[in-house]
């Protein structure tokens, strides 16, 4: 939202949600007529080996991206939670405050055992719990917006290391009106922070009021910059549930296409509301100073805050419990591709899960920013799974409708839009990488 503006973001979010729903409808129709509930098998029936490999490659890429994004959150947030529990002012560099170590421990101790179960049934409970954790996250985000003034001290140059205790938000107001504030964690408060015209009389330091104080706190409705190119791929990435649709469909009680479509409609609508609220209130709290990892931005405002600590724990729980759900389709894709027709083997089941987790841990430790993973995978794999593959499989496998029917024409347009969008997004992201190489520090 900070890179598109409120109105443009809302239009894009709703558009991607509707397209995602239409794409689930195409997928369910194709599964019915194609006679298979396995994505790769549908690809094989439609286009032979290339179709199977396209489905396999897209599912693997998308889900590895999703797993990496969840593990990124563990890497960034878990050290902060431990630091808050130990009441440490700064991250003192001990091994147990190192995100790279912690993500490996969480992968081995929690995610791997959960990934060893044989079917998805039990994950219904953990994902229900995860969802309630995210609702709590959104509620706290809305509450914090009502508590924090604007502009916040770190909006000004050179003052990004100021923070206050969660209990004394009034301190921020005190600072803006040039009263003494002892609650800040650093003594070297920069003169630029104050907005008082006459402050230099009392301090002996001459400094100017900030001219864009109002500008800093004015929401933008339409923004176009080099980062806008990432928006649609990231939104596409956020709405991809397609690899999980068929496995969940196959495990539904009293299975029917209508029932699965209702499940998808409710899920995507719930996500739409939560994405909209978290983006809106995150943006209206920090404006263009909001970071790619929203919770991380709060570290610049609070040293210790119980409510934010609970949110961090809730988000960590949610993402940790979601990783095994995402691992399932990757493992079943690998099993279908390499070991189809073989009997179930616990050793193979364990080894594949361990290898997938090891690969994801390497990605999370060595890739500089979460946005680079989101952008690239959103533009490639997510576009394949939302637009290109469901439309192509539908056109090829649904024989009950003539090609001139409006359903087939709509699917053809959907396919063309997907191809244009994929090429355009990859081109814009590549250009941005050329001008601002990943890891160069240019993140907004």
Write a structural description.
This protein is mainly alpha-helical. The protein has a single domain (about 5-150, about 215-435), classed as Amino acid/polyamine transporter I (Up-down Bundle), CATH 1.20.1740. It is built from 15 helices and no strands. The chain has helices at about 5-35, 40-85, 100-115, 125-145, 170-175, 200-205, 215, 230-240, 240-250, 255-285, 295, 305-340, 345-365, 370-395, 405-435.
Q: Give the structural class.
A: mainly alpha
Number of helices: 15
Strand composition percent = under 5%
Radius of gyration: 24 Å
- What is the ordering of alpha helices and beta strands? HHHHHHHHHHHHHHH
The whole-number mean of residue pLDDT values reads: 81
Helix content: 55-70%
Keywords: Membrane, Transmembrane, Transmembrane helix
Membrane topology: Multi-pass membrane protein
Domain Amino acid transporter transmembrane: 1-144, 220-426
InterPro entries: AA_transpt_TM (IPR013057)
Write a brief caption for the model.
The chain has 444 residues and is mainly alpha-helical. The chain has helices at 6-34, 39-85, 99-115, 123-147, 170-176, 199-203, 213-216, 231-239, 242-251, 257-286, 294-297, 306-339, 346-366, 370-397, 406-435.
């Amino acid at each position: 939202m900070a890179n598109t503006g409120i109105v443009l973001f809302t239009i894009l979010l709703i558009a991607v949600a509707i397209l995602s729903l239409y794409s689930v409808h195409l997928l369910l129709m194709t599964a019915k007529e194609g006679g298979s509930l396995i994505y790769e098998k549908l690809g094989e029936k439609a286009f032979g080996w290339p179709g199977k490999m396209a489905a396999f490659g897209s599912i693997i890429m998308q889900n590895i991206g999703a797993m990496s994004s969840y593990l990124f959150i563990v890497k960034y947030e878990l050290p902060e939670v431990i630091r808050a529990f130990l009441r440490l002012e700064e991250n003192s560099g001990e091994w147990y405050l190192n995100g790279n170590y912690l993500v490996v421990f969480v992968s081995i101790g929690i995610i791997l055992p959960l990934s060893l179960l044989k079917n998805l049934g039990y994950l219904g409970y953990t994902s229900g719990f995860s969802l309630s954790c995210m609702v709590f996250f959104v509620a706290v985000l809305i509450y914090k917006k009502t508590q924090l003034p604007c502009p916040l001290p770190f909006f000004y140059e050179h003052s990004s290391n100021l923070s206050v205790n969660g209990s004394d938000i009034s301190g921020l107001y005190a600072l803006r009106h040039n009263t003494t504030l002892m609650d800040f964690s650093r003594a070297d408060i920069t003169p630029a922070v104050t907005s008082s015209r006459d402050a230099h009389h009392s301090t002996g330091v001459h400094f100017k009021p900030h001219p864009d104080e109002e500008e800093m706190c004015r929401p933008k409705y339409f923004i176009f910059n080099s980062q806008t190119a990432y928006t649609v791929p990231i939104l596409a990435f956020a709405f991809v549930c397609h690899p999980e649709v068929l496995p969940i469909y196959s495990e539904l009680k009293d299975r029917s296409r209508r029932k699965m479509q209702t499940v998808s409609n409710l899920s995507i609508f719930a996500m739409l509301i939560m994405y909209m609220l978290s983006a809106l209130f995150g943006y209206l709290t920090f404006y263009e100073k909001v970071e790619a990892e929203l919770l991380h931005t709060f570290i610049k405002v609070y040293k210790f805050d119980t409510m934010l600590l609970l949110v961090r724990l809730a988000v960590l729980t949610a993402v940790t419990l979601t990783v095994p759900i995402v691992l399932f389709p990757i493992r079943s894709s690998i099993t279908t591709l390499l070991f189809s027709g073989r009997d179930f083997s616990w050793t193979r089941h364990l080894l594949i899960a361990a290898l997938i987790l090891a690969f994801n841990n390497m990605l999370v430790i060595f890739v500089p920013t979460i946005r680079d993973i989101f952008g690239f995978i959103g533009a490639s794999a997510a576009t394949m799974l939302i637009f290109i593959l469901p439309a192509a499989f539908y056109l090829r496998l649904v024989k009950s409708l003539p090609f001139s029917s409006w359903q087939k024409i709509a699917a053809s347009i959907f396919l063309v839009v997907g191809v244009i969008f994929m090429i355009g997004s990859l081109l814009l992201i590549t250009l941005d990488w050329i001008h601002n190489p990943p890891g160069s520090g240019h993140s907004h």
